[in-house]
Amino acid sequence: MPKKTHKWKELPGWVPLAHRAFVLRLRELREVSDRTQAQIAQDIYLAPTSLSNHFNGGRIPEARHVEKLYKILRDEAAMASRPMPCSLASLLELRTKALVKHCDCCSARSPEGTAAVPEPQPTAAGSPAPKRIRRRPRRLRVRLTTRHRGIPRAPAQAEVPVPLREGDRHLTTPADAAWPEIRTLAETLATGRSRDADIMMWSAATTLSARNVQVFVAQCRAVGLEEAADQVITNAARRDAQAVLNIASALHNSEQYADVGLLLAAAAQEEPS
């Protein structure tokens, strides 16, 4: 019986060519499996929303997740006598090329950065058209109410090895909240013990209080563990509705608005249809 192929969403026009080639090859690789995307995501210790994001041109997955995905699908293809569309080495090479144009300073990673700019038109007198100026996308700013303006900001953490990133997240985590668990998680990821790291992130997401989940996510972001923070949030979305609302409230109070959106979107996908 021929295998039923998936109907993929069209990739947005702002996805760079190198990233687009990597995503298309990932999709070809996905076609060798008859299982659902949620089942595959569970085997590689990823939330289904994160795996779907990788297949649709969002964040580029870490190399360890690409290797896990490839090995799992290779075993399935062997059992079903199906050919693999590529080798692991070529897939990792495409990922490396996609990362060249997929960085924080590159406007090609978001639709706002490639908004259409009208072409300059010549004037009626025939003079040269004005020079085209490429403007950076405008960042959204949150206006503080009058009752917050008089409250001094907490001093920046002196022990954070990586400076806080600029953007729409303004973390208000107390200076004494730097947990040793974050350093342990970073060392575990750096040494390639991905299974131990996944267990740590799952435990943090499902057992900590709402406030402690917020602190854990904030500390991960502060030291550059962006994907670990995303995974903690998507795992936390599997908790009961009241726990999810409490975590969302704690993130909102700390002005982590992007994390609130990610949590609620992941929780909505977890609800039974």
Summarize the structure.
This protein is mainly α and 273 residues long. The chain has helices at residues 17-30, 37-43, 48-55, 63-79, 88-100, 146-149, 180-190, 194-207, 210-222, 226-236, 241-253, 257-270.
Give an overview of the whole structure:
The protein is mainly alpha-helical. The protein contains twelve helices and no strands. Helix 1 (17-30) runs antiparallel to helix 5 (88-100). 51% of the residues lie in helices and 0% in strands.
Q: Helical region count? A: 12
Instruction: Report how far apart the termini are.
Output: 29 Å
Beta fraction: under 5%
Q: What string gives the helices and strands in order?
A: HHHHHHHHHHHH
Specify the helix fraction band.
Answer: 40-55%
Shape field: globular
The secondary-structure class comes to mainly alpha
- Largest sheet composition: none
Would you tell me the overall average pLDDT?
Answer: 76
Q: Would you report the number of β strands? A: 0
Assembly state of the chains shown: single chain
For the CA atoms, what is the radius of gyration? 22 Å
Extract low-pLDDT stretches. Answer: 107-120, 144-177
Which helices and strands, and how do they pair?
Blueprint: H1 17-30, H2 37-43, H3 48-55, H4 63-79, H5 88-100, H6 146-149, H7 180-190, H8 194-207, H9 210-222, H10 226-236, H11 241-253, H12 257-270
Helix pairs in contact: 1-5, 2-3, 4-5, 7-8, 8-10, 9-10, 9-11, 10-12, 11-12
Summarize this structure as a short list of keywords or feature phrases.
mainly alpha; 273 residues
